[in-house]
Amino acid sequence: MTRRDWIKKAGKWGLMSLFMYPLYAFIVNVRVRPPEEVRVSTIPKGNEPVIEPQFALFETAKGPIAVSRQCTHLGCTINYKGHEKGFLCPCHQSHFSWDGRYISGPAKKDLPRFAVKRLEGGKGYIVEIPRGLP
């Protein structure tokens, strides 16, 4: 093998590794994104929740819970019906209880719940929404 042939092969391998490294790094490196934190300063009163665009926040005897407002059927934003004490999907009429349990309709899974932390002094809550939720 001549020096010229060796340089050509080294150049080809160099170019190949230049293009292959990003693919390798993407496959091998697992990046975990922290959850999105939403601050809620409003305190739920009685049985009425605090309704936010992504979730509904309830205060229970066991502590606060946050229930997703995204239907598990096709992802429509669901509405809380106070007089029925539950959620109703406007797209395909799936029904869920106030705490996110599936009742009826085309959706077959319960609504996801999010982690909730109380702020010190009872001045609100922090709701942690995992990133990459469908």
Structure, explained:
The chain is of the alpha+beta class and 134 residues long. The protein folds into two domains: 1-31; 36-129, Rieske Iron-sulfur Protein. The chain is 19% helix and 31% strand. The chain contains one helix and ten strands. It has one helix spanning 3-28; strands spanning 36-40, 50-51, 55-60, 63-68, 79-81, 86-88, 95-97, 102-104, 113-118, 125-129. The strands form two sheets. The protein has a six-stranded antiparallel β-sheet, with no helix packed on it. 17% of the residues are buried. The mean pLDDT is 82.
- Secondary-structure-derived class: alpha+beta
What is the straight-line distance between the termini? 56 Å
What is the assigned CATH homologous superfamily of the largest domain?
Answer: Rieske [2Fe-2S] iron-sulphur domain
User: What percent of residues adopt helix (DSSP H or I)?
Assistant: 10-25%
Q: How many domains, in number, for the residues?
A: 2
- The main sheet orders its strands as 1-10-9-4-3-2
The average pLDDT is 82
Tally of DSSP β-strands: 10
CATH hierarchy: architecture of the largest domain? 3-layer Sandwich
CATH hierarchy, class of the largest domain: Mainly Beta
CATH topology of the largest domain: Rieske Iron-sulfur Protein
Largest sheet: 6 strands, antiparallel
Round the Cα radius of gyration to an integer and report it: 25 Å
Strand residue content: 25-35%
Low-confidence stretches: none
Order of helices and strands, N to C?
HEEEEEEEEEE
Envelope shape = elongated
Number of continuous helical runs: 1
